[in-house]
Amino acid sequence: MHSGKVIAAKKIISSHIHRTPILRSRLLNKIANSQLFFKCESLQKAGAYKIRGATNAILNLTTEEREKGVVTHSSGNFAQALSLAANLLGIPAYIVMPSNAPKVKKAGVIEYGGHIIECEPTLEAREATAAEIVQTKKATFIHPSNDIDVIYGQGTACLELLEDHTGVDIIVCPVGGGGLIAGSCLAVNDMNLNCTVIGAEPFEVDDAYRSLISKQIETNQTTNTIADGLKTQLGDKNFPIILDHVDSIIRVTEEEIVDAMKLFWQYTKVIIEPSSAVTLAAVLREKLVFQDKKVGIILSGGNVDLQNLPF
């Protein structure tokens, strides 16, 4: 069903996105006691991997659908990614954002050409407002992580990493809504490699960890984490892929996330957001799992408020 779809996505989006670099650090390798290959989606357009999925979803619409535009609800990176992807492809993007969304995120959406529609800060309000726009504007709804074309697009980050370094033993991905890790699993399958996929998640929002154990989608009672991109939950399209292909999920503390952010900046001079830093934190927490292995790490984004760095 999914075979070859990530490779196909890469062919149609490659001229619209950056092929991001893979960074290596001798000192981080020494600390981790493994060989680390960092796929820097922090250097992607709009500062995160999400433009990959947004672009693929738009390019898979019909001409008529594209003309009427796209709509999503997001207060984070996907809001900016869909706005920019739509802008670059010359179509309107309607972005439903909660009234309490950070000003910097709203400014980013406007800068990238998105039309913001504010709503109450509840999931019900977001979904109802998006549905209303679909009805009135006839725009196509694109979910940030639970849309199959978005999932295929997100997987292209991992695909590029595996093309550049075919000997990677383990891929480590952050887990929020599940689109990136599901796409990464499919990329490993498309490359037909003997490579394990491991998720990384904060203890404070460990719904994916619990979902993998219970084999059903779990939710979080609280979302008290610095990794704001990982507060969303898995969906019915990405969860079956995760269940079939993800080996395990490693949970990390808030302190470990901040330490990993700081460490990566210290040794590479690149700023990554907390949601990215969970991956390095996971590798450093469970060193024995990764010892002497070649480890591909997907750094999902670098959108950090520099006025409020946690270190």
From TrEMBL:
GO terms for molecular function: ATP binding; L-serine ammonia-lyase activity; magnesium ion binding; pyridoxal phosphate binding; serine racemase activity; threonine racemase activity. Pfam families: PALP. Gene3D superfamilies: 3.40.50.1100. InterPro entries: TrpB-like_PALP, TrpB-like_PALP_sf. This is Pyridoxal-phosphate dependent enzyme. Keywords: Lyase, Pyridoxal phosphate. The keyword Lyase applies. Residues 13-301 form the Tryptophan synthase beta chain-like PALP domain. One of its GO terms (biological process) is D-serine biosynthetic process. It comes from the Bacteria. Its cofactor is pyridoxal 5'-phosphate.
